[in-house]
Write a structure and sequence with these properties.
heterodimer, A: about 475 residues, mainly alpha, 2 domains, about 70% helix, globular, B: about 375 residues, alpha+beta, Cytochrome-c3 Hydrogenase, chain B, 3-stranded antiparallel sheet, about 45% helix
Chain lengths: ~475, ~375
C-alpha cells in the first residue's frame, strides 16, 4: 500500500494555527515561569494564604478564619455544634471536591496516556483521531460507555450484581485521603495512615468477590477466586514491606514518613530497596496488572470478575483499576521516593508538582511492565509469595528492626548511619535471596536457553533417538 | 461437615480471545485443574471439498486461499502441485524459484503470527505480536505488490505463477531479507531468555517423539518433539533440493521448544529466500494450459511443508473439467488431536499455552 493511502502512516498536516497557538503557549509558559520565579525568590509570598507552593497553607488560613467566625456565634449554637464545625465542614467539602476532580481528571488523561504509551512500545500510533493528538478519546469512550445498555445476565443475583461497581469505587477514592502532596497538603493526615491504607485497599477484594459470584459465570467466578487468593497472599509481603518503612521513619503518618526522608536526604528506596521491590510487586498483584494480571487474564478467563459487566459498570471497574494504579504510584512515591522532597529543590518548586512528577514516573514503570512482560501462572505467583517473598521479607524486617535499635543506641552521624544501613540491607538482601533460592531448589544453570539442534538429515523415530543421544 | 467440590464444565469459545477463531473447547474442570477436554470444531465449515467438485481445476485455486488464510501461498502451491501431477504439466524453472520465494515469505509471515499469538496466550499484552506484525506487514506488502492481494493471494497457477514480480519487488525483498535477521535477533532478545516465558512454556504440553509420530503430527510440532522430518528435505518439491538449509529440532517437545523451532525456521527461511533470489533464473513464469483443463482420469496426491505441517492435496479426476473428488490433509486438524493429551491433568493457563503452541487455523480445521 502506498504511504499516501495508508491511514496509519499518514499524518494530518498541522496548520499554521497550531504553530501560532504553540508559540503563544511557549511565550506564556516562559513568562509565567519567570514571574513565578521572581515571586518565589523575592520571598514576598512566604506565609501568605495564597502561597501556591503549598495549597494546604491557604486551606489552613481559611480554617482559621472560619474558626474565628465560629467563635463569634451565639453560645447555644457552639454548645450544640462544637467550636470547629464550620471549618471542618468547609475543608472537608473543598478537599473532597479536590480529590474527586483530581481523580476524575487524572483518569481521563491517563486512559489516553496509557494507550499512547503502550502504542509507542508496540510500534503503533495509538488513539490519534479524536481531538488534538487523540486527547478527546477517553471522553468519547466514556460517553459511549454511558450510552450502552447495562446487561444483567440471566441467573445473576440482581442486587449483588448491581453492588460491586459502587463498592469498588469507594475504596478507590478513599485511598487518596492520606496522600501527602506537599508539607501541609494532605486531606486526611491520619497518625495511623499506613494502617488505614492497608485496611482500605483490602476492602475492594470483597467487592470483586461479590462481582465474580453474582455474575453466574464460570470465568467471573474463576477470576474472583484468583483475586481473593492473590490478595490474601500478597497482603502479607506488602504489609511487611511497609513495616520496614514505618520502623525507619518511626511514624505511621504519611506526612511524617515523607518529612523523615526529606530531613535525612535519604529516600527509603536507597535504604531498603528490597521493600520497594516487594511493595511494587505485591501492588501489581493486587492491581491485576502485568506480569501478575492473572485475575483478569485475557487469554485465559476473558476478563475475570468483570466478564459480565457492560456499559458504565464495566467503565467503573476499568476506571478504578487505572485510578488504583496511580494511587500505587503515589504511595510508592510517598513511602520510598521521598514524596514532595527533592534534595532541597522543594523550597522553590511546589511540593505537589514534585510529587506528581514522581507519581507519573511510577505510573510509567507500571505501563512499561504491562507493555513488556508475559504473565505468571497462578500457582507460580502463589509460590513466589509464600515461598520467597514472605520468608525473605520477615528476615529483612527483622534486620531493619535491629538496625533501628542499633542506630538509636549508637547515635552516629546521619550519613555514616544511613550509609551503613543501606549497604548492609542491599548486601543482606542479595545474599539471602540467592541462598534461599538455592535452598528451594532453583538452579539457574539448568534453566539455560536450549537452542534447537540443526540438522540436514531427515529421518523418523530412530533418527530422533540418535539425535537425542548425541546431545 | 465435609466440603465437596464437583467438576464443572467451562466452555472456552467459540468466541474467546485465545481460540484463534471460532473453535470451541469444552473443558471439565475441578477448580483450576482440567479433568477432561472436548474439542468442538465445525463452526467455520464451508464445505470446500464438496464445492470444489462443482468448479474447474483453475477455479478451485481461490478456495485453497480460504482454508488456511494465514498461509495462502502454501495452500495455493500444494493444490497446484497436485493438479500438475495429475495432468502432467511441466513447470518452468523460474516459476519454481518464485514459488519457493513466496512460500518461504509466507512461512515467515505465518510463523510471525504463530509466535506472536503464542506469546499473547502466555500473557504478554500484544507487544511481541505487534513487533512480529510489523515484519508480517512488509511481507504482505510484497504480496500485494506482486499479485494485488495481501491475505488471499490466489497467486500460484497450474503450470507456474500468475504474475512475474514487478521491478520494485526486488529491492523491497532484498531490503526485507537484509533486515529480517536483525528483527529476529530483536525477538530473541525480548523473549527467548525471558524468565517468565521459560517458566510458563518449558515443560508444558510435552509430546514425546513416539507420541508425535503415532499421532501423525507434522511440521514444527513434530520437529520440536525431536524428529528431524521436513518435507522440503525428505520429499523435495519445486526447487528445494537446490538450496542449502537446515532443519531445527527441539529437545523436549514442550511449548518452549515449539516456539524456538519456529523462530529458528524463520532464520532458515531467510537463508532460503536469499539463495533463491541470487539464483533466480530468467525465462517464462508459467506454462500455458487450457482454461478448462481436463486431466486424464486418475488421482494424484501432492504434499508440501506448510507452515503448520504436511499440507496434502488429494485430487481425483474422472476426465471432466472439475475434480471428481478433492480432499485436503489439514495439518492444523491433525496437530490439534493431541491437545487432549497435552491438557488433561494440567491447569487452564497451561492448556491455553499448549493450544497456542499448536498454532491452529480454524479455517483449515473446518475447511
Amino acid at each position: 500500500m502506498s504511504a499516501a493511502l495508508d491511514p496509519i502512516r499518514t499524518r494530518r498536516p498541522q496548520g499554521d494555527l497550531a504553530l501560532v497557538v504553540s508559540l503563544f503557549a511557549v511565550i506564556l509558559l516562559i513568562g509565567g515561569a519567570a514571574g513565578v520565579g521572581y515571586l518565589v525568590l523575592s520571598g514576598s509570598l512566604d506565609g501568605r494564604w495564597y502561597d501556591f507552593r503549598d495549597l494546604g497553607v491557604g486551606m489552613a488560613h481559611l480554617a482559621e478564619w472560619l474558626d474565628e467566625q465560629n467563635a463569634s456565634q451565639p453560645a447555644a449554637t457552639r454548645a450544640l455544634l462544637g467550636d470547629h464545625w464550620m471549618s471542618y465542614l468547609t475543608t472537608a467539602v473543598i478537599g473532597g471536591i479536590g480529590i474527586l476532580s483530581f481523580v476524575g481528571g487524572v483518569l481521563l488523561i491517563l486512559i489516553w496516556v496509557e494507550r499512547r504509551l503502550i502504542a509507542r512500545i508496540q510500534v503503533r500510533r495509538g488513539p490519534n483521531r479524536l481531538g488534538p493528538y487523540g486527547l478527546l478519546q477517553p471522553l468519547a469512550d466514556a460517553i459511549k460507555l454511558i450510552q450502552k445498555e447495562v446487561l444483567i445476565p440471566e441467573g445473576a443475583d440482581r442486587f449483588l450484581f448491581f453492588l460491586p461497581p459502587i463498592l469498588v469505587f469507594i475504596p478507590g477514592l478513599l485511598v487518596w485521603g492520606p496522600v501527602p502532596w506537599a508539607p501541609n497538603m494532605a486531606y486526611l493526615d491520619l497518625n495511623v495512615g499506613v494502617l488505614y491504607l492497608i485496611a482500605i485497599s483490602s476492602l475492594a477484594t470483597v467487592a470483586i468477590f461479590i462481582a465474580g459470584w453474582s455474575s453466574n459465570n464460570h470465568y467471573a467466578l474463576l477470576g474472583a477466586m484468583r483475586t481473593v487468593a492473590m490478595m490474601i497472599s500478597y497482603e502479607i509481603p506488602l504489609g511487611m514491606a511497609l513495616i520496614s518503612v514505618v520502623l525507619l521513619a518511626g511514624s505511621m503518618q504519611l506526612s511524617e514518613i515523607v518529612r523523615w526522608q526529606a530531613q535525612h536526604y535519604a529516600w527509603m528506596a536507597f535504604l531498603i530497596p528490597f521493600s520497594l521491590f516487594t511493595f511494587f510487586f505485591s501492588s501489581t498483584a493486587e492491581l491485576n496488572r502485568t506480569p501478575n494480571d492473572i485475575a483478569e487474564a485475557e487469554s485465559e478467563i476473558v476478563a475475570g470478575f468483570h466478564t459480565e459487566y457492560s456499559g458504565m459498570k464495566f467503565g467503573l471497574f476499568y476506571a478504578v483499576e487505572l485510578g488504583n494504579a496511580v494511587a500505587v504510584a503515589a504511595f510508592v512515591t510517598a513511602f520510598f521516593l521521598g514524596g514532595w522532597s527533592l534534595f532541597g529543590l522543594e523550597a522553590f518548586i511546589p511540593g505537589y508538582i514534585i510529587f506528581a512528577t514522581k507519581v507519573a514516573a511510577g505510573y510509567f514503570v507500571l505501563v512499561w511492565l504491562r507493555g513488556t512482560l508475559p504473565r505468571f501462572r497462578l500457582d507460580q505467583l502463589m509460590a513466589f509469595a509464600w515461598k520467597y517473598l514472605i520468608p525473605i521479607t520477615i528476615a529483612h524486617t527483622t534486620l531493619v528492626a535491629a538496625e533501628v535499635t542499633a542506630m538509636g543506641a549508637l547515635a552516629l552521624p546521619g550519613i555514616v548511619e544511613l550509609g551503613t544501613v543501606a549497604l548492609v540491607n542491599i548486601a543482606f538482601t542479595v545474599w539471602v535471596m540467592r541462598r534461599w533460592a538455592r535452598f528451594l531448589g532453583y538452579r539457574p544453570e539448568t534453566e539455560r536457553v536450549m537452542q534447537p539442534k540443526l540438522t540436514t538429515q531427515v529421518g523418523g523415530l530412530h533418527a530422533a533417538e540418535r539425535m537425542r543421544g548425541a546431545s | 461437615m465435609t466440603t465437596a467440590s464437583e467438576p464443572y464444565v467451562l466452555n472456552i469459545g467459540p468466541q474467546h480471545p485465545s481460540t484463534h477463531g471460532v473453535f470451541r473447547l469444552r473443558v471439565v474442570m475441578d477448580g483450576e485443574r482440567i479433568q477432561d477436554i472436548d474439542m468442538v470444531v465445525g463452526y467455520l465449515h464451508r464445505s470446500m471439498e464438496k464445492l470444489a467438485e462443482e468448479r474447474t481445476f483453475t477455479q478451485n485455486i481461490p478456495f485453497t486461499d480460504r482454508t488456511d488464510y494465514l498461509a495462502a501461498m502454501s495452500n495455493n502451491l500444494g493444490y497446484c502441485l497436485a493438479v500438475e501431477r495429475l495432468a502432467g504439466v511441466e513447470v518452468p524453472e523460474r516459476a519454481s524459484f518464485l514459488r519457493v520465494i513466496f512460500a518461504e515469505l509466507q512461512r515467515l509471515a505465518s510463523h510471525s503470527m504463530a509466535n506472536g499469538t503464542f506469546i499473547n496466550d502466555a500473557g504478554a499484552w500484544q507487544t511481541p505480536l505487534m513487533y512480529m506484525f510489523r515484519e508480517r506487514e512488509k511481507i504482505l506488502d510484497l504480496f500485494e505488490m506482486t499479485c494485488g492481494a495481501r491475505l488471499t493471494t490466489n497467486y500460484m497457477r497450474i503450470g507456474g505463477v500468475s504474475f512475474d514480480p514487478p521491478p520494485e519487488f526486488y529491492p523491497a525483498v532484498e531490503a526485507l531479507v537484509a533486515e529480517l535477521p536483525d528483527r529476529i535477533a530483536e525477538y530473541t532478545e525480548l523473549l527467548v531468555d525471558n524468565e517468565i516465558l521459560i517458566a510458563r512454556a518449558r515443560g508444558v504440553g510435552i509430546i514425546s517423539a513416539a507420541d508425535a509420530i503415532n499421532g501423525s503430527i507434522t511440521g514444527p510440532m513434530l520437529r520440536a518433539s525431536g524428529v528431524p522430518w521436513d518435507l522440503r528435505k525428505a520429499d523435495p518439491y519445486c526447487a528445494y533440493d537446490k538450496f542449502d538449509f537446515e532443519i531445527p529440532v527441539g529437545h523436549n517437545g514442550d511449548c518452549y521448544d515449539r516456539f524456538m523451532v519456529r523462530l529458528e525456521e524463520m532464520r532458515q527461511s531467510v537463508r532460503i529466500i536469499r539463495q533463491a533470489l541470487d539464483g533466480l533464473p530468467s525465462g517464462p513464469h508459467k506454462t500455458e494450459i487450457p482454461l478448462a483443463l481436463r486431466p486424464a482420469p486418475g488421482e494424484a496426491y501432492a504434499r508440501v511443508e506448510g507452515p503448520r505441517g504436511e499440507l496434502g492435496f488429494y485430487v481425483v479426476s474422472d476426465g471432466g473439467p472439475a475434480p471428481a473428488r478433492f480432499h485436503i490433509r489439514a495439518p492444523s486438524l491433525i496437530n490439534l488431536s493431541l491437545l487432549r493429551q497435552m491438557a488433561v491433568g494440567t491447569s487452564l493457563p497451561d492448556a491455553i499455552v499448549a493450544l497456542g503452541s499448536t498454532d491452529i487455523v480454524v479455517g483449515e480445521i473446518d475447511r
